[in-house]
């Protein structure tokens, strides 16, 4: 896959529902992805980690307590055990019974809804390379040839490098809490397609510099209309949001 420099062929939507459906649904579930799509999002972001037996699953935290009725480390449980947990009740009774999805289930859901995803590779500590490799292979095995592929990203360079070695053609973005001084060299060294960054630690001059270098910059997590408008005016390529009516509010 060869993509021309942005913006001529940047193939992803501006608005991305964070963790599937932002704050409107339990994060990283199929209900969240459906909620994002129903709200009009053509792209969602979700986090993927491995079970003890190397099954890629959608979950953000290394531990189960915040978003499920399980206890302990995700990486200490088999997929069979994790898939029995309730991952919806914490958000509200309407979502009771919602499960942790496998990456395969999430990919099938995206295809059925005809939307795309940013798959954030979120390895448990010590499983960085294995997680990158397994996620890349899972996407390549399931995603149809000729259909615009999901965009991979990670805070972990080890995970991204392993994903690149496993399936070099999948597009990848470097993910930062704070844009480093040497972002351009890092992008070149890795062969990344995009840079993803926490908007709260980013000023508009930095965004313009990335934009002028011809690279798409995506910002998380933008829930304020004034800030979103400022970033759009400066040329941001993607906005991750928890607030599903923000695109409409920014369009008016
Ligand atoms: O990928 C963007 C964003 O999701 C990174 O932060 O902690 O919400 O996964 P986090
Ligand atoms: Mg994430």
Account of the protein in words:
The protein is α/β, with parallel strands linked by helices and about 250 residues long. The chain has a single domain (about 25-30, about 45-215), classed as TIM Barrel (Alpha-Beta Barrel). Helices cover about 30% and strands about 15% of the residues. The chain contains nine helices and nine strands. It has helices spanning about 30-40, 80, 105-115, 130-140, 155-165, 185-190, 205-210, 225-235, 245-250; strands at about 15, 45-50, 55-60, 115-120, 150-155, 170-175, 195-200, 215-220, 240. Strands 1-9-8-7-6-5-4-2-3 form a nine-stranded mixed sheet. Helix 1 (about 30-40) packs parallel to helix 3 (about 105-115) and helix 3 packs parallel to helix 4 (about 130-140). The radius of gyration is 17 Å and the shape is globular. Mean pLDDT is about 95; it is low at about 1-5. Bound molecules: SN-glycerol-3-phosphate and magnesium ion. SN-glycerol-3-phosphate binds near residues 47, 120 and 220. SN-glycerol-3-phosphate binds near residues 18, 120, 196 and 240.
Strand tally is 9
Structural class: alpha/beta
Name the ligand types.
SN-glycerol-3-phosphate, magnesium ion
- Count of separate structural domains: 1
CATH class: Alpha Beta
- Mind describing the biggest β-sheet? 9 strands, mixed
